[in-house]
Design goal:
- The complex is a heterodimer of chains A (118) and B (581).
- Chain A is an alpha/beta fold and 118 residues long.
- Chain A is 36% helix and 22% strand.
- The model of chain A has no long low-confidence stretch (mean pLDDT 89).
- With 581 residues, chain B is α+β, with helices and mostly antiparallel strands.
- In chain B, strands 5-6-7-9-8 form a 5-stranded mixed beta sheet.
- Chain B is built from 17 helices and 9 strands.
- Classes of the chains: A alpha/beta (118), B alpha+beta (581).
Chain lengths: 118, 581
């Protein structure tokens, strides 16, 4: 049931991007691209038109919440799932306000968690 | 007798000679009416200007004002050559007799130092001199009116009587003269507006008498241009009387300020004597010197800087500052402070010296207070920096934990999950994943260890400074020789400070010094722990570079210690911290 979900992974840590790619691909997702910061996330999202953006909260340039707000600003924008090695309680209502569909702690990332949110 | 005094005496004698010659000329004149009165007024004006001018010259040799005033007196006396019966001397007299007015205007414009402010003013005055000489020419060429000069000798320059041309030329010259005076008045009043109160007080006698005379002169010239003879005569006499009074107004001004200030200085001495070091010293000095803008600065020998009474650093006015100047205050040959005052007061060096001498002890008391304020200010700043450094350190730790170990553990957790999912269907893949997970775990442990050591090295608490420094030297990427370390344990905060001084210094050596080796020594000397780190690198280290050294200096100064960096270019760097034990 995960087949066909085109995913863009945005995170400044290459080790997380690599592991998340293996994990999601193993569970039937189609990882179409990766980005290491907010600016390239916006460019890549425009270019690759993913259905889902897996977006780290803490990026070196633009905050993940701002990137999420910009990506979800259009009606036909992708679904944004925020991830972080911190807990969602660290961010309070910011997650809901950003327009993201949900939040997954990095250590708990799995295809099933994503599917639940989609 | 100094060279200046001798010259002044010679000039005074010359003045007397010129006065005698002028008296003789007027007395023998066959065309000067009221010779007695003319001689009296001529001598009064000429000698008063020469006498007062010489006095001012003697008092303030650096200013050209006295010389100019003397010059006005001489030119005024020389003007009596118009009384000569000889046609040539008479002609020369007529051509020169107006020069003293221009020199007077020049003097007023250039008050107080005798130098004109702007180039165009020099051109204006030069034009004035030319006008003064050329002005009487129409009368010499085309004949005097009877009123002007009845029975004067005929000038060698005389061409023929031509009333029309003469009157037209006269009117033109008078109008140019009025314009000249108007410009000078405008400059004087503008300057008064821009002056500080002490400057206004200093310029008042010369300014107001100058303005009065110039207005009378302009009115006389104006009425002359329109041929209103009676008005011209009256204004001329009024102008002469005002002119004669100038040296006395100037003298009275000088004496009054000297009296007033001498009184103020003795009052200052008395008040400081009654209650030394209390009350507002600044107000007292500003009363004594008549300068409300006066400020005090105190010298901190150990810091090598000037501060105000609150201990904040201040800059003294530079040499040649057009508005402000300062006078040093010393006590028993030691500099304690400075009086920053209006620049006009530098014309009275004796006054400044006596006020500075009187203020010595009170200034020293104020200086001690200022020093205390400066120290408190410094401590406050250093405390703020320590708090800020603590916050920055926590930020750095959080960031390092987040980016380092935490990321590795996240990756590890995901990898373990993947391995678990694969353990049955693809054991080889699961095995490879567990190997990768193991490597990640080793790296995470290493990073955590490094981080923990940066917070506080356990070996320092457990085994002391020697062992901690040995470990530090062993981890450094260049050769580090550990010279001496005290065998006994030092108090914990001192050991920690010493350790971090060495750690930061070695980090800097590795980063910037291009050194091949470094030496570390810690000794106990005269109740101090002396920490020294030296290298054989390129030197030229800047103590203000980066926050690392600054933070260490604060840490050391929080323990009442001192840190010094000695880093001549090309000769290595030596960092020395002295912490009282």
């Amino acid at each position: 049931m995960n087949v066909g979900h085109r995913v863009l992974i945005v995170d400044d840590h290459p080790s997380f991007r690599a592991t998340a790619r293996v994990l999601l691909e193993a569970e039937g997702f189609d990882v179409v691209g990766e980005a290491a910061d907010g600016a390239s996330a916006l460019t890549e999202a425009g270019r690759l038109q993913p259905e889902v953006v897996l977006l780290d909260v803490q990026l070196p340039d633009i905050d993940g919440f701002d990137v999420a707000a910009r990506l979800t600003g259009n009606a036909d924008g992708p679904v944004v799932i925020l991830v972080s090695s911190r807990d969602s309680s660290d961010f309070g209502p910011l997650v809901m306000r950003s327009g993201a569909r949900g939040f997954v702690p990095k250590a708990e990332l799995s295809g099933d968690r994503l599917t639940e949110l989609l | 007798m100094t060279g200046l005094n001798r010259a002044l005496v010679v000039i005074a004698l010359a003045g007397l000679l010129v006065a005698a010659a002028s008296t003789a000329l007027v007395a023998a004149s066959d065309h000067v009416p009221q010779r007695g009165a003319t001689i009296a007024i001529g001598l009064l004006i000429g000698l008063s200007f020469i006498g007062t001018g010489l006095y001012a010259w003697w008092r303030r040799p650096a200013s050209r004002f006295g010389a100019m005033m003397t010059g006005v007196g001489f030119l005024n006396l020389i003007g009596s050559a118009t009384a000569a019966n000889d046609p040539v001397v008479f002609t020369a007299g007529v051509l020169l007799c107006n020069l003293f007015f221009v020199l007077f205007a020049h003097m007023v414009l250039a008050y107080p130092d005798g130098r004109l402010e702007q180039r165009w003013q020099a051109w204006l005055i030069a034009g004035g001199y030319v006008l003064a000489i050329v002005g009487p020419l129409p009368q010499l060429l085309w004949g005097f009116t009877e009123r002007m000069c009845d029975g004067c000798p005929e000038s060698p320059l005389f061409i023929a009587d031509n009333e029309g041309v003469r009157n037209a030329a006269n009117a033109a010259v008078s109008l140019i003269g009025v314009a000249f005076v108007a410009v000078i008045l405008w400059v004087l009043l503008r300057r008064r507006r821009a002056a500080t109160p002490p400057q206004r007080r200093a310029m008042a006698p010369v300014l107001w008498s100058g303005v009065t005379i110039l207005i009378l002169l302009a009115a006389a010239l104006g009425s002359d241009a329109f041929g209103i003879a009676r008005v011209t005569d009256v204004l001329g006499w009024l102008g002469l009387i005002a002119f004669a009074s100038v040296p006395y107004v100037f003298l009275i001004g000088l004496v009054r300020t000297r009296f007033a200030r001498a009184g103020a200085v003795s009052e200052l001495l008395q008040r400081l004597g009654e209650a030394p070091g209390t009350g507002d010293l600044r107000c007292r000095l500003s009363d004594a010197l008549g300068d409300n803008s006066l400020q005090l600065a105190f010298w901190l020998e150990d810091k090598g800087k000037w501060v105000d009474s609150e201990g904040h650093m201040v800059q003294l006015p530079a040499e040649g500052d057009p508005a402000r100047a300062w006078t040093a205050v010393e006590l028993e040959g030691r500099r304690v402070g400075a009086i920053v005052h209006d620049v006009t007061l530098t014309e009275e060096p004796e006054l400044l010296r006596s006020v500075a001498a009187a203020a010595g002890l009170a200034m020293e008391n104020e200086r001690l207070k200022a020093q205390l304020h400066a120290r408190v200010e410094e401590l406050r700043a250093s405390r703020d920096r320590i708090v800020e450094a603590g916050t920055a350190e926590r930020r750095r730790l959080e960031r390092n934990l987040h980016d380092g170990a935490q990321q590795r553990l996240v990756a590890l957790s995901l990898t373990m999950r993947l391995a678990q999912a694969n353990i049955r269907k693809d054991p080889a893949k699961a095995d490879a994943m567990l190997t990768a997970a193991n490597e990640e775990l080793t790296l995470a442990l290493g990073e955590l260890r490094e981080l923990a050591r940066g917070i506080h090295p356990a070996v320092l608490s457990d085994r002391g400074l020697g062992a901690a420094l040995e470990a530090l030297a062993g981890r450094a990427p260049i050769a580090v020789a550990l010279d001496t370390v005290p065998e006994d344990r030092l108090p914990e905060p001192i050991e920690a400070a010493a350790y971090f001084v060495v750690a930061e210094a070695l980090t800097n050596v590795v980063k910037y010094a291009h050194a091949t080796q470094a030496t570390v020594a810690v000794q106990r000397q005269n109740g101090h722990a002396i920490v020294e780190v030296a290298d054989d690198g390129i030197g030229g280290a800047d103590p203000d570079r980066g926050s690392g050294l600054r933070g260490l200096a604060d840490r050391v100064s929080a323990l009442d210690g001192r840190m010094r960096l000695d880093s001549p270019a090309g000769a290595g760097t030596r960092l020395r911290a002295e912490i009282p034990v």
